[in-house]
Amino acid sequence: MCNNSLEIGHDLEDRMNEVATQFAQAADGAPYVVYAILDPTKTDPRSRYQALPFYVGETKNPHGRAIDHIRRALAQKDKYQSARSEIYRLMLANQLPRFIVLERCSTRAQSLEAELRWSQQLLKWSYSLSNCLPGQSRIINKLHYERLIANRLWKLTMVEAHAAGITITESCPSGCYRKVVELSACAASENSGRKLASLKETITACSRCQSEPTIAIAEQNGSQTSWKRPSHNAIDLPRLLSPHRQ
């Protein structure tokens, strides 16, 4: 092994598979997991974990995700200051990262919420994370946190939203109409892999009053977020609604 280059040999391949298999076993068959990557060369000064955590993520495929992290680190080397550079640094020292399960989830809507929640928790415990997104790289205020929690729903595919029991309605603000988007039909169609954000591209002005419709997404726990096409000088952010408002 050279000091500044790495290749995947049989030994490294075996070790990668061992790490990935251990991660998959820890998931215990959960549909989704939120996980942390640990640096085995550094001890945790807070003694919460067996090594120092430096990244939080979520996945439905623990084994494949672990392999992907390592292979991407090999490809990118230390070009970026991120989790990939941390993993590449470990591999130069003949080490591999450890993957631990922080939480098991039933749906991706749950895992995306848990991913943000755990990131914030570790940051508040004074761990430094290599994640790039603001909600996972630095501590944010309550309003920002709530907006990110609401906005995460737009990342779901039709299948994931249907599995999470999410309800979507489109309505005219003037009361001309209100219709429910049939997610079950979308999930079974060729559009099943499309994200909910694609719905923003399909709505048109109300045919009666020409008002811009509102799309509302409601979760099973009663929380709801809505979206309306922004004006040219507005920022496109979801609006938070209380569980009891429609």
Description:
The protein is α+β, with helices and mostly antiparallel strands. It folds into 2 domains: about 10-140, no CATH class; about 155-240, no CATH class. The chain has helices at about 10-25, 60-75, 85-90, 110-125, 135, 140-150, 160-165, 185, and strands at about 30-40, 50-60, 100-105, 165-170, 180, 215-220, 225-230, 240. α2 (about 60-75) crosses α3. The model is unreliable at about 230-235 and about 240-245 (pLDDT under 50).
> Which spans have pLDDT < 50 for at least 5 consecutive residues?
232-237, 239-246
Q: Write down the Rg.
A: 21 Å
Number of helices: 8
- Please give the largest β-sheet: 5 strands, antiparallel
Kindly, what is the distance between the CA atoms of the first and last residues, rounded to a whole number of angstroms?
A: 62 Å
Instruction: State mean pLDDT (0 to 100 scale).
Output: 87
Instruction: Classify the helix fraction into a percent range.
Output: 25-40%
Structural classification: alpha+beta
The strand count comes to 8
Order of helical and strand elements:
HEEHHEHHHHEEHEEE
Query: Major sheet: order of its strands?
Result: 5-4-6-7-8
**Total domain count:** 2
Q: What would the principal axes of the Cα set say about the shape?
A: elongated
Query: What amount of the residues lies in strands?
Result: 15-25%
